């Protein structure tokens, strides 16, 4: 499975591409950070992010996109910009019929470090070890994008099993309700 990890942001948007192998083996294929000037109009910044992300999607052809979910932020402007960047990326994926999954920062931290409250340095260190990189990815947005992709690779089998279980439960509920309706009739 080829996963594009995205740490969305207006000033710096981390992008990564990894491929999963057997078990927990993952391989880094590419990583970059899209930067946009803070003094540029919002629509131009979003266009820069969109153009870069679309190029990545067309070049690397990911199976899924893993985006950091905007969770909570003390700065409403930062949270809004992050959400807008994430929305542009999800839209680009939808246009290419690529599934998008959102993971919270604590899910990513827990998957990569075993600690949902890990700091940036711990994430960077673990990403470097997991992917057997020669040097630490910089800036932190690049490491975060790689961590998102790793998290999704490792969580995808569980996500698929949960979806399957939910579908079975819904089908069983439907059959039960049909039987109940027949008995009442």
Secondary-structure blueprint:
Elements: E1 2-7, E2 12-20, E3 26-35, H1 42-60, E4 64-68, H2 76-95, E5 99-103, H3 105-113, H4 120-130, H5 140-184
Helix pairs in contact: 1-2, 3-5, 4-5
Cofactor: Mg(2+)
GO cellular component, one term: cytoplasm
Pfam family, one: RuvC
How would you summarize this macromolecular structure in one to three sentences?
This protein has 185 residues and is α/β, with parallel strands linked by helices. The protein contains five helices and five strands; from the N terminus they run βββαβαβααα. It is globular, with a radius of gyration of 19 Å.
Overview features:
185 residues, alpha/beta, Nucleotidyltransferase, domain 5, 5-stranded mixed β-sheet, 5 strands, 56% helix, globular
Describe this structure in words.
Helix 1 packs parallel to helix 2, helix 3 packs across helix 5 and helix 4 (120-130) packs across helix 5. The chain has a 5-stranded mixed beta sheet with strand order 3-2-1-4-5. The chain is 56% helix and 19% strand. It is α/β, with parallel strands linked by helices and 185 residues long. The termini are far apart. The mean pLDDT is 94. The chain has a single domain (2-156), classed as 2-Layer Sandwich (Nucleotidyltransferase, domain 5). The chain is built from 5 helices and 5 strands; from the N terminus they run βββαβαβααα. It is globular, with a radius of gyration of 19 Å. It has helices spanning 42-60, 76-95, 105-113, 120-130, 140-184, and strands spanning 2-7, 12-20, 26-35, 64-68, 99-103. Pfam families: RuvC. Keywords: Cytoplasm, DNA damage, DNA recombination, DNA repair, DNA-binding, Endonuclease, Hydrolase, Magnesium, Metal-binding, Nuclease.
């Amino acid at each position: 499975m080829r996963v594009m990890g995205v740490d969305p942001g207006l000033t710096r948007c981390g992008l990564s591409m990894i491929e999963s192998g057997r078990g927990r083996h993952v391989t880094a294929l590419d990583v970059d950070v899209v930067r946009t000037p803070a003094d540029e109009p919002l629509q131009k910044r979003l266009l820069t992010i969109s153009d870069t992300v679309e190029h990545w999607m067309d070049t690397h052809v990911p199976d899924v996109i893993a985006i950091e979910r905007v969770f909570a932020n003390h700065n409403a402007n930062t949270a809004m910009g992050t959400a807008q960047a994430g929305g542009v990326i999800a839209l680009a994926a939808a246009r290419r019929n690529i599934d998008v999954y959102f993971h919270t920062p604590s899910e990513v931290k827990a998957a990569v470090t075993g600690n949902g409250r890990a700091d940036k340095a711990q994430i960077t260190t673990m990403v470097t070890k997991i992917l057997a990189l020669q040097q630490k990815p910089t800036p932190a947005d690049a490491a975060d994008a790689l961590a998102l992709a790793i998290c999704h690779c490792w969580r995808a089998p569980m996500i698929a099993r949960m979806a399957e279980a939910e579908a079975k439960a819904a089908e069983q509920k439907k059959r039960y309700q049909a039987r109940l309706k027949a008995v009442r009739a």
